[in-house]
Every structure is written in structure tokens, then in C-alpha cells.
Amino acid sequence: MSEWLVLSIAMASACAVVLTIAVLNNRRIADDDDPSETPDVIEYMTMMIGVVYAIVLGLAIAGVWEGRGAAQESVRLEAQALHEVQARSSVYPAEVRDRIRAGVDAYVTHVIGTEWKVMADKGTLTERGTELLNRVRADVTEYEPRTDHEGQAYQPLVDQVAAADDARTSRGQNAGETMPGVVWFGLIIGALVTVGLIFTLQIRRTFRELLLAGLFSALIAFLLFLIWDFDAPFGRGISATAEPFLDLFPEATR
User: Fold this and answer.
1) With contact defined as beta carbons under 8 Å apart, do 220 and 194 qualify?
2) Tens digits of per-residue pLDDT, 149-178?
3) CA gap 123, 67 in Å, rounded
4) Which of 52, 60, 115, 78 shows the shortest CA–CA distance to 231?
5) 222's torsion region: left (phi>0), alpha (psi -120 to 50) or beta?
6) Which of 58, 73, 25 is nearest to 205 (CA)?
7) Are 117 and 156 in contact (CB under 8 A)?
8) Which of 148, 176, 193, 207 can bridge 123 by disulfide, Cβ–Cβ 3.0-4.6 Å?
9) How far apart are CA 181 and CA 84, in angstroms?
10) In this predicted model, which residue has the larger pLDDT, 210 or 122?
11) Three state DSSP letters for the chain
12) pLDDT digit string, tens, across residues 204-217
């Protein structure tokens, strides 16, 4: 199911539930009821709870957005480190250089073609990807430099492989959902309480009041959807992309 369709259904459902409750609740109100008699303390509590929940929503959105940014940055660092391995290996003999570059291409092809989908579906890395990166590490570390020029390039190559491995580990840690269940519990309960409190203000069946109630509930549903969408950096609509790999290794994707 398209995520835009999920969002549309969620927002429409929230509006429908709130408006239905508002209309049914209005039928129970006597004709001589005066909405201006709402105690000031209720209006104050409604305002304060709304402000507190807005802060919580803002922090949650900022947290998942930061997680998505960290996930995208780990992809960029990994791709850049592997690109450096390919470039710096040019000082090695042709046989060693070609073996290292072939290993990097095989790893990148696996990441883009297979591992990316596994991360999106299961939130984990693949054993095959680990094996391919270990093969690149072995090709780099097991070679014994024969000249000073090769010796000067050896340690930077080893460091770049280590950087790629570290970035891969970070990518794996960011692959799954980052928001704890208890936070989701608080967000959902907070949404129900915040939306529920608007009924204490005695909403009438005027078009203006019903429109505002519907828009408010739809906004809450949209913000919760936004948090859910960002919560899996590699698995949902607004997700981290493999563009760094595609840009630096165009030959590996053909």
C-alpha cells in the first residue's frame, strides 16, 4: 500500500472520528446550554496540555530527522572511503590493484542490489556483505609493499577500509526503527488526550468549529505519520538513499 494512501486514510479517519463524536455529543447538549460557561481552568489545562504535547511532537520529529541524517551520512562516508580505496590502490601492481578494485565493485553491487532491500525489509545487514568487505580488507592488508611509494600508500588504504567498515556498522545500527515502543505509547496516548480535550470546550455544530476540529485532528495524524515515516531511515518513503554509491561507483550498477 502506498504511504501517501496510508497518510490519506489516517488523516481522513481522524477527521471522521472527531467530527462524528462532535456531532453526536452536540445532540446531547440542551438548547439552553451556554458554551461561555466553560470554566477557565479547563481552557487553561487544555492550552497547557496542547503546548506540552506540541513540544513532545517537535522533539520526536527532530529526533527521527536527526537519525535519518545520521543514516545518510554513514552511507556517504562508506561510499567515500571505498572510493578512496579504489583510487589509492593505483600505486600497487596491476594484479593486486585489479583484485582490490574488483572486490570493492562486488561489495558495492551487493549493497545496492541486495543489502539495501534487506535493510528496508528486515532492518539488518547481510552476511554476504560482511564477507565481501572482509575480502577487500584481506586484499589490502595481506599485500606486502615492495617500494617506498607502495609503503606510503599502505597505511592510508588500511585506514580507509577501517573507515568503510565503521560506516557500514553505523549504517546497520540505523537500519531498523529507532523510536522505542514506550515513546510511541506516549505519543499516541498524548494525541488521544489532546484531541479529546477539545470536546471539553463544547464544540457546536457550526461549520467553523467543525472545520477547526477536523483540521486539528488531521494535523495530529499527519505529524504522527511523519514521525513513523522517518523512524525507519532505510525502510520507508522519505528514506536515506544510495546516491553516494551510485555517484561514486556508476560502473558497479550497470
Assistant:
1) yes
2) 888 888 999 999 999 999 999 998 887 777
3) 14
4) 60
5) alpha
6) 25
7) no
8) 176
9) 40
10) 122
11) CCHHHHHHHHHHHHHHHHHHHHHHHHHCCCCCCCHHHCCHHHHHHHHHHHHHHHHHHHHHHHHHHHHHHHHHHHHHHHHHHHHHHHHHHHHCCHHHHHHHHHHHHHHHHHHHHHHHHHHHHHCCCCHHHHHHHHHHHHHHHCCCCCCHHHHHHHHHHHHHHHHHHHHHHHHHHCCCCCCCHHHHHHHHHHHHHHHHHHHHHCCCCCHHHHHHHHHHHHHHHHHHHHHHHHCCCCCCCCCCCCHHHHHHCHHHHC
12) 667 777 787 788 88
Residue 46, all three cell numbers? 487544555
Contact by Cβ (8 Å): 103, 139: yes
Question: How many Cβ atoms sit within 10 Å of the Cβ of residue 116?
Answer: 22
What is the grid cell recorded at 56? Answer: 513532545
